[in-house]
C-alpha cells in the first residue's frame, strides 16, 4: 500500500465541494432512515423494496446484457437466489483456449441486515458490460433472523457452487478466473470468505478481491495499539452510515453469538494472523474519508501488504 501520512488521512474527513450539493437532501434521507431502522424487524421487512432510479445510459437488458435469477442450494438445504448478469459480449472475452468469461462474484452491502442484489444494480450491469464478464450477486439470508454465520455460510456455499465445473459451464465462466468483491458488510463477507478458502487450501481460481469501504473489525476489538482508529470518533456522526448505525448492524449480526464472537477473524478479518493472510489473492481496498470505517479499511490494506 502506498504510504499515506496521518495528517492526510485525518484531512480526508473534510467533505469535498461536490458533497455540498447533496448534503441537505442527505440529511432528510438519514433522518428517515433512523426512523425506519427503529421499527421492529417484522415491520422493517414488511416495507416493500423500491429500487432507485437507474441512470439513462445504463446497460439495457436484452440489448447489452442478459439478466436472470437462479436458485442455489446451500448446506442446510435452503435455496439462495443468485442474480446473474451476463454481458452480451462476454463470449468475445473468451480466448480459444479459455473455458469461459471472468466471473465477478459480488456480495452486496447493507450491514448484514438490509439490501438485495438489485441494490447494486447499476454497478453490476456496468461491471459485466465494461469487462465482457459475468457478474453474479448472491442474495444471502439476513440477520437478525439469520445471524452469523448464516450470511457467511450462504455466500461461501454459493461461491463453491459457481466454482464446480458443470455450474461454471452453465454460467459461461472460467472457474480459474474469479474475482470476489463487495461493499461494506459485503466486503466483510468477501474478506472472510477468502480467509476461509485459504484455510481450506481452496483458493484455486480466485484471482482477486475488491473490498469497497470494508468492515474489517468490531470496534470493541480494534487493535488500536497497531493501527490508527481515528475515523471511528472523527466520523462518528457521518452522513449515510454513522458509528451508532454500525453498532446497530453489528448487534443484529451477532444476535446469536454475542459480541465476544467478534474477536474471530471470520467476523473481524483484521484480527487474522499474518500467516492466515499470506498468499491471499491481490486486493483492491477502497475507503471513504468521511466514513467511520475508513481506518479499519486502511488497516486491513496495511495488514495484507505486510503479509506479502
TrEMBL record:
Domain Alpha/beta hydrolase fold-3: 105-308
Cross-referenced SUPFAM superfamilies: alpha/beta-Hydrolases
InterPro entries registered for this protein in UniProt: AB_hydrolase_3 (IPR013094), AB_hydrolase_fold (IPR029058), GDXG_lipolytic_enzyme (IPR050300)
Ribonucleoprotein as UniProt keyword: no
UniProt-annotated stretches for the region Disordered: 1-22
Molecular function per GO: hydrolase activity
Keywords from the UniProt entry: Hydrolase
Database matches in PANTHER family: AB HYDROLASE SUPERFAMILY PROTEIN C4A8.06C, ALPHA_BETA HYDROLASE FOLD-3 DOMAIN-CONTAINING PROTEIN-RELATED
Name the UniProt record assigns to this protein: Alpha/beta hydrolase fold-3 domain-containing protein
Species in which this protein is naturally found: Capronia epimyces CBS 606.96
